[in-house]
Every structure is written in structure tokens, then in C-alpha cells.
């Protein structure tokens, strides 16, 4: 009788385990994207702005940002340093109190700076996919795409 009870318990445990594993199976209708980089504490280099590639001018810094653990954002517009605050909740990401240094930027760099600061101001959501960060507006339209360079 004791051996039969042990067998019944073992079978029950196996059934529960199979049910638990099948309950964790992914739904084919849901797209899951995984991130290989942390959002906070990573150097994010600006790659695309409004769908267009961003190039680095000779002798200039690349446009980038770093989100600090203290809720502050720092980085570069490609010409000037930028700083401010950010708020992160779930997939919601917003920037506030953005400021930059005031060095004169030549033509294309001034245009990039204005567009980059505008994109940050319009950011409402984000998506992390592998080593890419996509900043999105309130309608989930991509504003900018950045590539991760981890800070160690």
C-alpha cells in the first residue's frame, strides 16, 4: 500500500510539473523581445534619428546618453554636453529639465543637436532589443535608435 501511495505521489508531481512548464510556454501571438544590455548605466550611442543615420563629424564627440541610477541623464548632442533628469516606469521613459552647454555648433551639428534634444523631449516610451534602445513618442513612433556600449 505504501509503495502504491509513493507511486501515486510521484505521478502527481510529474503531472503538476508538466502543467507548470506548459503554462509557461510562449503565446505565438505575442512578440517577446529580449535585451542584452541594461537600460541604466549603459553608454547609448545615437545611431538613427527620425529614421536617418547619424554620423560623427571629424573632431567631434558622438551623440550619446547615459542614464544614471540617480535619475539623471548625461551625454552629448554631438557638439555640446547634455544633462537633465529622467523618469522610468515600466516601458515609460520621459526626460525633463534637459539642458546643454552653449558652444556654437557648425551647420549640420546645430541641426543634429536641435533634433536630438527635441527627440528626447518627445520621448514617452522605449523598447530594448538586444543591444539597441529605441526611443518612442506617445504613439509608439520611433524617434531615435541607440546602440549600447557598456560602461565597466
Overview of this protein structure:
The chain has 152 residues and is α+β, with helices and mostly antiparallel strands. It has helices spanning 2-23, 107-122; strands spanning 42-49, 52-53, 64-67, 72-76, 81-89, 92-100, 125-129, 132-136, 142-150. Strands 1, 2, 3, 4, 5, 6, 7, 8 and 9 form a 9-stranded antiparallel sheet that branches. It is globular, with a radius of gyration of 23 Å. The relative contact order is 0.18. Mean pLDDT is 81; it is low at 4-34.
Distance between the termini: 61 Å
Percentage of helical residues? 25-40%
Number of helices: 2
Tell me the fraction of residues in β-strands, as a range.
Answer: 35-45%
Q: Which overall shape is indicated by the principal axes computed on the Cα atoms?
A: globular
Largest beta-sheet characterization: 9 strands, antiparallel
Indicate the low-confidence ranges by residue numbers: 4-34
Oligomer: single chain
Structural class: alpha+beta
Number of strands: 9
Based on CA atoms alone, the radius of gyration comes out at 23 Å
- Helices and strands, in order, run as HEEEEEEHEEE
**Overall pLDDT metric:** 81
Amino acid at each position: 500500500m505504501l509503495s502504491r501511495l509513493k507511486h501515486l505521489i510521484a505521478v502527481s508531481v510529474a503531472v503538476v510539473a508538466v502543467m507548470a512548464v506548459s503554462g509557461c510556454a510562449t503565446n505565438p501571438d505575442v512578440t517577446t523581445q529580449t535585451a542584452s544590455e541594461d537600460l541604466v548605466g549603459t553608454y547609448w550611442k545615437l545611431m538613427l534619428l527620425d529614421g536617418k543615420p547619424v554620423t560623427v563629424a571629424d573632431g567631434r564627440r558622438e551623440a550619446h546618453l547615459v542614464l544614471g541610477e540617480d535619475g539623471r541623464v548625461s551625454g552629448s548632442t554631438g557638439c555640446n554636453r547634455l544633462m537633465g533628469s529622467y523618469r522610468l516606469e515600466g516601458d515609460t521613459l520621459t526626460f525633463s529639465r534637459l539642458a546643454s552647454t552653449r558652444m556654437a555648433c557648425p551647420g549640420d551639428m546645430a541641426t543634429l543637436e536641435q533634433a536630438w534634444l527635441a527627440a528626447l523631449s518627445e520621448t514617452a516610451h522605449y523598447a530594448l532589443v538586444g543591444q539597441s534602445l529605441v526611443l518612442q513618442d506617445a504613439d509608439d513612433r520611433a524617434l531615435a535608435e541607440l546602440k549600447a556600449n557598456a560602461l565597466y
